[in-house]
Amino acid sequence: MSFKQQKYFYGDIPEDNTGENMSSPKTETKNEWPLWEVFVRSKQGLDHKHVGSLHAADAAMAMENARDVYTRRQEGVSIWVVESKHIHASNPEEAESFYEPAADKIYRHPGFYQLPDEVNHM
Amino acid sequence: MNNYLKDYLLYLADTSLILSQRNSEWCGHGPILEQDIAITNISLDLLGQSRNFYQYAATLIGDNATEDTLAYLRTEREFKNCLIAEQPKGDWAQTILRQFFLSAYQYLVYEKLQAYNNEQLAAIAAKALKEVTYHLRWSSEWVIRLGDGTEESRQRMLQATNELWRYTGEFFITVDYEKEMNIDVADLKIEWMKTVRAIFEEATLPIPDNTFMQTGGKKGIHTENLGFILAEMQYLQRTFPGANW
Predict the structure, then answer these.
(1) Mutate to test the interface with B, among A37, A51, A55, A64 (most CBs of B within 10 A)
(2) Contact between residue B79 and residue B71 where contact means Cβ atoms under 8 Å apart
(3) Which terminus of chain B is less hemmed in, N or C, by CB atoms within 10 Å?
């Protein structure tokens, strides 16, 4: 049995599900700047978190737009931007086979150990 | 000394305030959402800078002066802002270029001021410098993008250069209050030209020939534009004195 690999763009799962429209994702319509996803690290030591998206002509503009749109209230100390078309998303229609099998496997959670009293914050 | 310092603070404050007021005209009208937010952010930065200068000036003036009375209750001839700040916002190219010219200048002024032997003035300048550094970066990239962009964006940049170049001369004319404070702005011209030349070169825009330079703003002699700005900006306080939120 083989699985067909399809490339889907973020927010762009084609209705016919054939993946044939890959070359023209909806995020790049004519006369519109490409869409970028913005990730902000709120302080040193924490990870970058997705905060939203914006339009920009290039990476430098995306960075400045992100600074102006998403960090104006001291939300961050570091920004990542990535063009949305580079993000591959899982297909909601496959959710059943993707995620549900994990539902009845509680033994995968490390919840069956007796922790010594000295160990805090677990 | 205090008298000259007061005038100098008002000059710095007025330039930031009037530019802030002009940029704020884009609020809700920016070319795209992200740039609408960017230009209003800059506008708010400038407003913050002007408030710092006004508050300091108000303590020197005394006589119940506050940042509000200085912004809202002075007349056209009492404003000392650079002429370029009061020019209409024009199209995006004109707004961008004005921001670039002024940010490049403010950068040099604040950079020097942060070492000035007046602690409060130096501290305000140091804080403002961080903001201006970003304004300069942001506007520089837009000058390059538009100058070296499409035929239309290039035409608009050329038009904007033609419109605004004549107001850059007064940046480098040292007026009496600057002289009294031992601040020589003529010195800044070389550095400013270096910045402008580098960005214009990358934007493939020509540096204008020496043209007649309009001056007077720093001494309170303004173009007709300032009156209209003040009429709008001061209307509420003039009509309902002391009105509050």
Answers:
(1) A64
(2) no
(3) C
Residue B146 burial (CB count, 10 A): 23
Give ipTM to 2 decimals. Answer: 0.76
- Domain boundary assignment for chain B: 2-206+215-239
* Residue B162: both structure tokens together: 């033609």
The count of domains in chain A is: 1
Candidates B130, B136, B110; CA nearest to B121 is B110
Chain B segment 128-147 residues within 8 A of A by beta carbon are 134, 137-138, 141, 145
The per-residue pLDDT for range A49-70, each reduced to its tens digit, is 999 999 999 999 999 999 999 9
Give the number of beta-carbon pairs within 8 Å between A and B.
28
The model's pLDDT over B134-188, given as tens digits with 9 standing for 90+, comes to: 999 999 999 999 999 999 999 999 999 999 999 999 999 999 999 999 999 999 9
* Positive/negative CA dihedral, A13, A16, A19, A23: negative
The answer to whether residue A21 sits within a structural domain is: no
Fold of the domain built from segment(s) B2-206+215-239: Ferritin (1.20.1260)
B1–A contact, CB cutoff 8 A: no
Q: Is B198 on the interface with A (CB under 8 A)?
A: no
A46-65 residues touching B, CB cutoff 8 A: 54-57, 60-61, 64-65
Cβ neighbours around B109 below 10 Å, total: 21
For the record, the structure tokens of B164 come out as 């605004």
* B150 inside 8 A of chain A by CB: no
DSSP B220: T
Residue A95 host element (H or E): helix A95-99
Question: Cβ separation of A60 and B32 shorter than 8 Å?
Answer: no
DSSP state of B167: G
Give the gap in angstroms from C-alpha A55 to the nearest C-alpha of chain B: 7
Asked if residues B124 and B53 have their Cβ atoms less than 8 Å apart, the reply is yes
